[in-house]
Every structure is written in structure tokens, then in C-alpha cells.
Amino acid sequence: MLNVDEYYIEILRLVKQAGSIIREKIYQRKDVLTKSCDVDLVTEWDQKVENLLISGISSKYPDHRFIGEESTASGQKIELTDAPTWIIDPIDGTMNFVHGLPYTCVSVALLINKTAEIGIVYNPILEQLFTARKGQGAFLNGAPIHVSNEKELHKALIMVEMGTSRDPEKLKIILQNLALLTSQIQGIRSLGSAALNMCMVACGSADISFEFGIHAWDIAAGDLIVREAGGVSIDPAGGSFDVMSRRTLCASSVELAQQLSKILIQYYPERD
User: Fold this and answer.
1) What's 150-188 look like in SS3?
2) pTM confidence score
3) How many CA atoms lie within 13 A of 235 on its CB side?
4) 163 pLDDT band (50/70/90 cuts)?
């Protein structure tokens, strides 16, 4: 029997444990490895946090499945089924973690029947715990949050990232979009974490977040948090959000999301 309340309590306990590890290690020296390229970083703590979360859940719910950044990097195939599936980024913003920049977080979502039921994004350095349950709203440290409701692009603050890929075509399109948008919006910001960028939209501190080339574990939790905070989450070209597409656009209003989708130069990475 599926018990989402029980799952939520258990994952919250594990996420807080994971946060304690990140808080303890962020300002210490770390051994750093690279994955897909020289700026796609991983530390032993990414792997230890992911192992903590997966082993903790598996011990209680052995039939649950996982999509995790570090287990995927080690060669496990990504497959999203209707089974209860935890999508985990143990340290979103690993480069920030490596440099001691305090914008880093644990990001965890639970999907059942391919529908998000739980989303948690925890920045233990700044003590920001963003949570959402399907149909129950979104919260920051237990207090309800809501998007800004901004509808006009020229008043919007946008979150966007360069990402870790150094594919020339992708970089060209990102720079073209930045140049295109600069004269049409109020400002552009980057925290170095897709999950935290999305949470900034959810709590009204920013109005839009979009990115090409991210992965399911970067955006699954943020997607639910934004929607439960009253925002919208779509494909950057204007269609439905697809957690496996490696493309995301979330905004404070439908009007704002559609305005941006009509002017963005699109990039389509290989799917997860």
C-alpha cells in the first residue's frame, strides 16, 4: 500500500541527515573528480550523500526505484516507470560546494505513476528547506510560499545557467538568448543550482527560470515546488513539461512563461 505521508516523513529525515554532511564539509578541502568534462565535477560527498538517501529508502521500501545523479554517472540506465521512483540529486551545485559557495542543496522528488507527489530542496548552508506535496501547497521552512504572479516580461528577473556542457552549439544558443533577453527583462541571475533557481521562482524572489541540458534530478523536485507555489512549469518551447527532456521553463504566471517561450532560441539535448 502506498503511504505518501509516511514516505514524506522518512525522506525529510534522510534529507536533513544529508544536509548535515554538506554543512560540515562545504568549507573543507575536497578531492574532486570530473565526469563528462573538466567542469562537470563530483566529490566523494556527492556519492556518500546519494548512498545515504538510497540505502535509507531501500531499507524501508525495497520495491521503490531510483534515478540518482551519481548512480547514473556510474553507468546505471535511466528508466522512469509507473513504480514509486525517487529522483535524487545529492548535491545540486557541486561546483559551488567545491568552492565553498553557499548555494548548494539536496534535491529529492518522489514520482508515482510518473506524477510528482513529493518535492524537497534543502540548502543546509543557508537553512532553506523548500518542500511540496501534490495538492498541498509549497513551503519554505514550514511557511507557505507563493510565486510573484508577475505577468510582464520587462519587469521579470530571470534565473538561467550556462550548465556544465561545453558543446559549442549549446553555448552559442545560450549566449544568443542572453543577448536577446538583456534588453527585454529587468535582470538575469545565476545561483549555480537549477533546483535553487526554480525555488527562487516558487518563493517570489525571481519570476522565471529556464535551462537547457539539465537532467531529471536537477528539476524534478523544483517542478513540483513551483507548481504548488502557484507557478507554471512547461517546456521552453511552450509545450508540456517533461522531466526526462533535459529542458525546463518555470515562471510566476502562464502569461510570462508563454511570452518567453515565443522568443527563446531553442536547444534540444539528448533525452535522459
Assistant:
1) CCCHHHCEEEECCCCCCCHHHHHHHHHHHHHHHCCCCEE
2) 0.96
3) 14
4) confident
Nearest C-alpha neighbor of 222 from the set 89, 77, 36: 89
Closest CA to 60 of 114, 6, 12, 23: 6
Q: Distance between CA 141 and CA 197 in Å, rounded?
A: 17
Catalytic residues: 69, 89, 91-92, 94, 218
Give the relative orientation of helices 216-228 and 194-202 as an angle to the nearest 10 degrees: 10
Amino acid making up residue 103: Y
CA dihedral 119, 121, 122, 126 (to 10 degrees): -140
Cβ atoms of residues 120 and 128 within 8 Å: no
Secondary structure, 3-state, 72-87: HHCCCCCCCCCCCEEE
pLDDT score at 75: 65
d(CA 232, CA 254): 6
Supply the pLDDT for residue 39: 61
Q: pLDDT, tens digit, for every residue of 18-57?
A: 999 999 999 998 888 887 776 677 888 999 999 999 999 9
Half-sphere exposure of 10 (CA within 13 A, CB side): 18
What does the pLDDT average to over 168-183? 95
Q: Cα separation of 133 and 270, whole Å?
A: 30
Reference 224, options 75, 59, 94, 107; nearest CA is 107
Mean pLDDT of the chain: 94
Cell 503511504 belongs to: 3
Strand, helix or coil at 101? coil
